[in-house]
Design brief:
nine-stranded mixed beta sheet, 26% helix, binds 2-OXO-4-methylpentanoic acid
């Protein structure tokens, strides 16, 4: 383990899960429904700064019902994973990107920035104490999902930046994000709602963006789809992203297109890593605005051969069908490039391939 430079007070969980209980959970962890024995916490106060770093037993938070997070959604979060390599060591992927994005989100939500070393130290402390929850290297593609988050805790109903904030890290063993494992997902084009508009919070990782996606997500499910795809707020023509994943379009001539980061799209760490991996393969990669008609027509004509969604939780997921009010287009295919990029990324993350970019960080 890499030593931590922040000194965390540790309160052990006297009720830790037994090794047998952990083994049972790790056999089929699902996504986001089991949590490890501890959580890391750091408080912030205006005029005091960050203080009182600690690791405590995992459990409910006690907050005043008037705490700002409950009323005005002053909240941000991150998503990362810890991977066990064959030699037993535990690693995470490009954590400095998450630390940086958390601070970008913090500025947008008028929350305090957290020194990146504290961010990393909180992750390290939690994974160190709960390392029994990191699945073994031979357990397929399971990992320990890490969820850092920051919330406004001050009791006040006035609409203003909170004077008290909590940063916390929790962790949850994770298998496939989608129930049913890795199979192509179907997407519903939301015509009623948008996810984000220019100048809004689209590129921040804040709960409000995800809350805003839920009604469309429900509409997609009512229409027999797994996920919803959002279009831009102005012209309702340009493809943005899913509720929590970026999109890539693979063309039959080898070109790969992904929507450019216009301020309304989350700058995914998986997205930027895949762009690098694809460029290194000599593929022509375009970050540009991409219309829903290009997608519909390209998929129907065969010009678009594969579409995939990506994010930390779901890694890379092939898209098999696009549906909208009045039509649909199937993208059956072999998802060959999708699966090969997926494997390349996972091989780096699980230490099965050389980490030539220096992306892995030993916890
Ligand atoms: C992640 O991929 O880590 C996210 O935060 C997205 C969410 C849909 C789980």
């Amino acid at each position: 383990m890499t030593p931590s430079s922040t000194s965390f007070a540790v309160t052990e969980n006297a009720d830790r899960a037994t090794p047998e209980q952990i083994t049972t959970v790790l056999q089929d962890p699902g996504f986001g429904s089991h949590f490890t024995d501890h959580m890391a916490m750091i408080d912030w106060g205006r005029g005091e700064g960050w203080h009182d770093p600690r690791v405590v037993p995992y459990g409910p938070l006690q907050l005043d019902p008037s705490a700002a997070v409950f009323h005005y959604g002053q909240e941000i979060f991150e998503g990362m994973k810890a991977y066990r390599h064959a030699d037993g060591s535990v690693w995470t992927f490009r954590p400095e990107r998450n630390a940086e994005r958390l601070n970008n989100s913090a500025r947008r939500l008028a929350l305090p920035e957290l020194p990146p070393t504290m961010f990393l130290d909180a992750v390290k402390e939690l994974v160190a104490i709960d390392q029994a929850w990191v699945p073994s290297a031979d357990s397929g593609e399971t990992s320990l999902y890490i969820r850092p988050f920051m919330i406004a805790t001050e009791e006040a109903l006035g609409v203003r930046p909170s004077n008290r904030v909590l940063f916390s890290v929790i962790a949850s063993p994770a298998g496939a994000y989608f129930t049913g494992g890795l199979k192509p997902v179907s997407l519903w084009v939301s015509e009623l709602y948008v996810r984000a508009a220019a100048g809004g919070t689209g590129e921040a990782k804040c709960g409000g963006n995800y809350a805003a996606s839920l009604a469309s997500q429900a509409e997609g499910i009512e229409n027999g789809c797994d996920q919803v795809v959002f279009l831009d707020a102005v012209e309702r023509r340009y493809v943005e992203e899913l509720g929590g994943m970026n999109l890539f379009f693979v063309h039959a001539d080898g070109r790969i297109v992904t929507p450019e980061l216009t301020g309304t799209i989350l700058p995914g760490v998986t997205r930027s890593s895949l762009l690098e991996l694809a460029r290194e393969r000599g593929l022509q990669v375009e970050e540009r605005r991409f219309t829903i008609d290009e997608w519909r027509e390209g998929a129907a004509s065969g010009e678009i051969s594969e579409v995939f969604a990506c994010g930390t939780a779901a890694v890379i997921t092939p898209v098999g069908r696009l549906a909208w009010n009045g039509g649909e287009v199937a993208m059956p295919g072999t998802h060959e490039l999708t699966m090969s990029l997926r494997e390349e990324l996972l091989d780096i993350q699980y230490g099965r391939a050389e980490d030539r970019h220096g992306w892995m960080y030993q916890l």
